[in-house]
Amino acid sequence: MKDTANIKDQSMQVKGVLLNFNKPLTMGVLNITGDSFYAGSRNAFKEQYLPKALKMAAEGADILDIGAYSTRPGANEVDELTEIKKLTEAISIIRGALPGMIISADTFRASVAREAVAAGADIINDIGGGTLDDQMFETVAALRVPYILMHMRGNPQTMNSKAVYADLVGEIVFELSEKVNRLHELGVADIIIDPGFGFAKTALQNFELLKRLDELSIFNAPILAGLSRKSMIWRTLKITPDEALNGTTALNMVALMNGAKILRVHDVKEASEAIQLWEVYKG
Predict the structure, then answer these.
(1) pLDDT at 101
(2) Quick check: pTM over 0.70?
(3) Of these four, 32, 139, 178, 181, which has the most CB atoms within 10 Å of its CB?
(4) Active site amino acids
């Protein structure tokens, strides 16, 4: 187990309340699209949004991450107006039923981020890390909401060709550092770091990144691990995404041991149980 005792206590303002990361949090994935890589996470119809959100809340979700644009390689394009309509509709429905739930809007478009926050979102989760929309950083600064900064190169259509590194973690830290500095200059104080498992990284690079996850503590920001049912699991085990829950739980525990403060998952109950066991184990 890596020594993560030197990682400072972390907290941030969300919904006017201090959110503490002393205990890791569970982020439930709510894809309001029929195009997700994992069939079990597809919620293409409005009638599916609330039951899924309520189920995740009951299972222990601290945050719900709602997205209307699939970013899997080869995914269909979603136009801006459609993304806004679907995302804001889902946020409004879920916010009405779960007023105290922290909601994250999963989008790389600044215009969508603005509308999502107006509809009730509390956090912006940008898989592009500001590279897919040059207005995103300024928009998040103006909105004054926490921002999840993910590492990726290229876009979902080109990222696989850009998984070339001389020093994997060193280059990720360098590329994220430039963006963190820019965000701080704009006045964005609350940043969550997502190293971007599966985004411009091969399976072996993903495992190296997981092994060295604690090196991202240099940012003194909460680290989000998005490993749930990803190809690094099911391709390695020669199974399908539908069969990758056990592997996900195994790697989530490794992520917790190496400093992850948020687990972004499709299966909230299992992740919450892993966190509960981790808390007892570390004492």
Answers:
(1) 95
(2) yes
(3) 32
(4) 230, 264
